Amino acid sequence: MEIVNRVLSRFIMCAIVIANIIFSAICPIAAYAAENITHNVWMDSNNQIVVKPINGGEIIDGFCIDLDKVISGANSENNALKYEELQRDNSQNLFDLIVLSEAKLNRLPYKTPGEIFNYIKGVYYYGIIEGYTYKQIQDAIWEFTNGLYSNASFYAGNKKSEEGKYLYQKAIANPLNSDQLAQVHVRIFKYIRGRATPTQNVIHIDIDQPDVLKEKDIVISKVNLGGEEIAGAKIQINQGNKEVASWTSEAGKNHELSLLPGDYVFHEEAAPKGYVVVTDITFTVNTDGTVTVKDANGNKVAAANNQLTVTDETEYVNPTGTLRTTVKADNITASTTKAAEVTAGRAVAGIEVIDTIIYEGLVPEKVYSVTGELYEVKEDQVVGTAKATATKEFTVSKEGKGEWQLAFGQVTGLEAGKTYVVYETATSKEDLVDKNKDNTPEEKHVVEHKNPGDKAQTVVVTPAVPKEKDMSEPANRVRSSSNKNLSNSNTSLPKTGEKNNDALIIIGILVLLGMFVILAYKKKKYR
């Protein structure tokens, strides 16, 4: 009897189960209503998820969000699985469905509901905008939600697409901004019943279709520091690695072009002569047609309304400059054809030396330190150290040319029969030379005049000339010696010359006396 009761009990239980199954098949809506069933879900012939409201309405696609689970045995609406739609765009609802354990959460690159939610949005956004397939988008979602962040075997073992892996990596590396996130909406469907095996939860994603972008008319000006449009600048407009426009600037004329909203790079391939090439400038064309500068990169650039104005700085030109000198020694001025000559006697006592410097091409109104050096010249080369030096600071005229005078003072020690030359060096007090071509001077401007053969800067000390007194002494000694020899000689020479002279003197005296007597007599007679 006991055996009969057990068999009967089992039969009754089976009958109840069978009755429930039959009733569920006949009246599915009534059976699931208490569980808030809202949608039927099945796989179509393309192996894509189909989601349809149980009371009829729009059919939408869906994506699985749990790789560990499956959707099986549901290949039409007749044998569809039953799902409940949860609150739309609720990140916590999605988080609760896919993060079932702390261990799984630890494998995910993002940890919070908001981060995970935004990643799912990013996958779909990039997938739709860039034309990925349904499968590639599904693979990218699975790669994340299954927590296989760095596991290459996920693709090798499950035959997933490389495009899906790339899309996954892009969504990780380039999170959506707030405007993009606002365009993406997530509908969440929770599995309720239909199969005994672990079954996927499902999401559907809508994206607000952005307005079709239209090109905006913008103006680009290439000007000098005076604001004048300049000619000869070779310009490119690039977006990423792509050149979207290029032209050569014209004098007095800006350039008009049309660009889609987005970021661009202003690249100057070559600057006009006399100007410096600007470094790359990043600017943005906004959806309202205005232009903004994103990165000036150290350049002078301005944006106003739809116009971008880029200023070329004038290329820094290094000064050259020349010096010419004319020396004056002991008030004797040299010339290009004749050196200043001073006597040895004057040189011994010391002479005043003044060098007149004529300069051209120096930087206007800048201060230069001028140093003069007086050297001995031998065989067209200076020898030894400077015999005299002088240094003084001068300010260049507004015209960059003019004349300075450098006084050496009283110079001594110049030797007879020697030649001397003045060397001049002018050195700027400020850095005025751009040596490394970065348009910024970093060295002093140095100008020299050093020519040992230049007569205009040469002083010659003439040899000493013997005095007259010194020249007569040897003659007197000779004459004295001759007279002495004559007086000691026994030879008697005739003295006719001396006697004749005495006679003439006597005769003259007598004539004078005679005339005096005659005059006296005549005077007495007339009385």
TrEMBL record:
Residues 433-497 are annotated as: Disordered. Keywords: Cell wall, Membrane, Peptidoglycan-anchor, Secreted, Signal, Transmembrane, Transmembrane helix. It comes from the Bacteria. Residues 493-527 form the Gram-positive cocci surface proteins LPxTG domain. InterPro entries: Ig-like_fold, LPXTG_anchor, SpaA_PFL_dom_1, TQ. Residues 480-495 have a biased composition (Low complexity). Residues 433-453 have a biased composition (Basic and acidic residues). The chain crosses the membrane at residues 12-34, 503-521. The keyword Secreted applies. The keyword Calcium does not apply. This is Gram-positive cocci surface proteins LPxTG domain-containing protein.
